[in-house]
Amino acid sequence: MSTFNENQFDDPEANRELSQSSGVDHDSDDGERQPLIGSIPPKEEGWIAPRHFVWIELAIMSNVFLYGFDGTITASTYAVISSEFDATNTASWLTTSYLITSTAFQPLYGRVSDIFGRRICFFISTITFALGCLGCGVANDIVLLNCTRALAGFGGGGLMTMATIVNSDMIPFRRRGMYQAMQNGIFGFGAICGASFGGSIADTIGWRWCFLLQVPVSVIALFFGYIVIKNQRDNLGGISNLKETWRIVDFSGSLLLVVAISIQLVGLSLGGNELPWSSLWVIMSLVGSVLLFGLFLRVEAKTTAIPVIPLRMLKGRLPIFIQLANVCAGISAYAYLFLLPLFFQIVLLDSATTAGARLAIPSLATPIGGLIAGIVMSRWGKLITLIRIGAIFMVLGNALVTSLNFVDANWKYYVYIFPANLGQGIIYPGILFTSLATFEHADHAVSSSTVYLIRSLGTVWGVSVTSAIVQTTLTIRLPSVLGDIPDKWRVIDSIRHSAETLRDLPLDIQLKARMVYYDGLRYSFAASTGFALIAFCAAMCANGRGLRKTTG
Fold first, then answer.
1. I need a labelling partner for 314 at 20 to 30 A (CA). Which of 157, 293, 443, 502 fits?
2. Contact at 8 Å (CB) between 464 and 94?
3. Cβ-Cβ contacts under 8 Å for 123 (sequence gap 6 or more)
4. For residue 409, how many other CB atoms are within 10 A of its CB?
5. Residue 461 is assigned to a structural domain of this protein
6. Is 15 within a domain?
7. Are residues 470 and 521 in the same domain?
8. Which residues pair with 271 in a beta bridge?
9. Could you give the CA distance from residue 249 to residue 112 in angstroms, rounded to a whole number?
10. Rounded to 5 degrees, what angle do the CA atoms 351, 193, 219 make?
11. pLDDT of the residue at 31
12. What is the tens place of the pLDDT at every residue in 439-453?
């Protein structure tokens, strides 16, 4: 059974229910208990930072910086990139190709690092991310660009995950609040830099440098990591060949997850865009993805290997509602981040530089929220309260942006975009540490990667669904709004494929097209608000009505 410090949660009864649903079972298929790397937690009393602690933090925090930087620099430039390749209607794939591989392989970093060590997984994530960024910088067509973004995602999935796991090995749980706040702050700083400079880089020396400039930082992280990051004392051992590795690690489940997500995104991308939603291909893609997700869960339940997602981590009232809040927060947060630059560059006709500068405001809010969460966790615990407060801010922020008019007061574009990311900075650490407190220290690696996996699934769905809403709105509304203008279908196709086309249209046609875009974006922001509201309701239900009555 897990042991808990009661101030980690707001409700002692919730702790009791949680401990009853979180039994630990590391049995292999031959019935023998196998120790995991990091299964010995660092001691709380008299803790002293390990040797080379500062250099270890420098190595892993460099990767955390890149994780934040890459997310917003892509968000602030994808309209420019996709317009250059005449692919604005499929611009979401610049984000989702990264998210597919990041999401699918993220949980493997936890389990594989348990078996083979933190060091090799740190190297794999850093090197593949750097190679992916290098490939993006030299790609000469949209297909190659999306493929190299997928390679970067394979490594990117481990950047934040490995940082959390390495810190979990070194730092006692009760001391980790402020270190997690620092990690969130570095992530936020990277996001601010990406948002602030991404548009400027794209407008001056070219968008390719947005990716190429990340390679030297990865090299620095790799250099310091090679010197100071070591494996833990205990490991599974005895793995002599590839067959044995496949038996122990659930690669079959990972493959099913990749295929399920990919097929689903194909359906969401084609539906209402290249094909009508009633198309057999779209229906088959969406239905097939559901069946594959079901098969994935069955494999996870039956596998004798170490599963991608141990289903025992999703049992019990509290874990279920916390992970529901997690996935909905991911949907809302990334949909919001994906839509904002499109709103700025199409509705407000901002340049990439100006749109990127505007993104610095919500990016600044994220580390502020993380700092607040770190202080609260370190001094008072109150994890579930943090989740609820973060969700409230996300609902408020998304609702405020949804309420923006086509032409509105200039100050609103700065003030209204702040609360959603403040809430994101608060809710994410709360969810992570609630999940970590659920299980023994030996499970912290896979618990961390599971949290990131479920959140990443949300981000994939958020980008895909909101992109589908915008493209469907354009497909339905543009033909009727533009009327009988000359060469109408070519103009519509150009508008959907390139955001830059809008600037060259006659003013009356441009205004009509921007209004349609505005409606599609507003519907998407409304959907994002709805998912944030679900996250808040899930957080409120985490303890259950009966538990509240029991505790008075």
1. 157
2. no
3. 222, 225, 226
4. 10
5. yes
6. no
7. yes
8. 275
9. 7
10. 125
11. 36
12. 776 677 777 777 887
